[in-house]
Hints:
Elements: H1 6-20, E1 28-34, E2 37-45, E3 50-52, H2 54-64, H3 76-97, H4 100-130, E4 151-155, E5 158-164, H5 166-187
Antiparallel strand pairs: 1-2, 1-5, 2-3, 4-5
Amino acid sequence: MKQLTKAGRISIPVVVLFLITLWLAPMWRIDMRAPQYPDGLSMQIWINDVKGDVPIINGLNHYIGMKTIHRDDFREFVFMPIAILLFMAGGVLVFLLKSKRAYYIWTAAFMVIAICSFTDFYLWEYNYGHNLDPNAPIQVPGMSYQPPLLGYKKLLNFEVLSQPDLAGWFYCAAGVILTVITFYEWKKK
């Protein structure tokens, strides 16, 4: 069995520590600004909750027929913590085995979790912005209100910015570390 290099072994606790931030800080944020809200509104998405100006956003979204946002509506707030905890436990196993193959599998598992998470988030945003109440007080024919997955978008008079928050940047950094070290380990055959 091919053994991990020192860099590979050091990367494991670093990645695990980076992922612990998911319980300490928000992983994603959506910021909105409009003339009637010059200080803006924001929604922070944590690994197991949604916080911020959600009650105000729900009130505004009622007028255009969007569903209200409630923590209990997200199965992801149950599955994501479990998936990340299992991934972190897998890291402990990889650390003990010191196996390159185990590290490659661990990295692949991270990529699967990341791809599934972003796909799920995109689908939620799509559903949220397109499945509107046909009896909404304000209706703009042909208009959908899907927030951007990443980046900026103008929705009526609101400017919307969607981006990683603190824990999200650590999550992204963990993915970069895993990818770089996997490539490094593979090249060190």
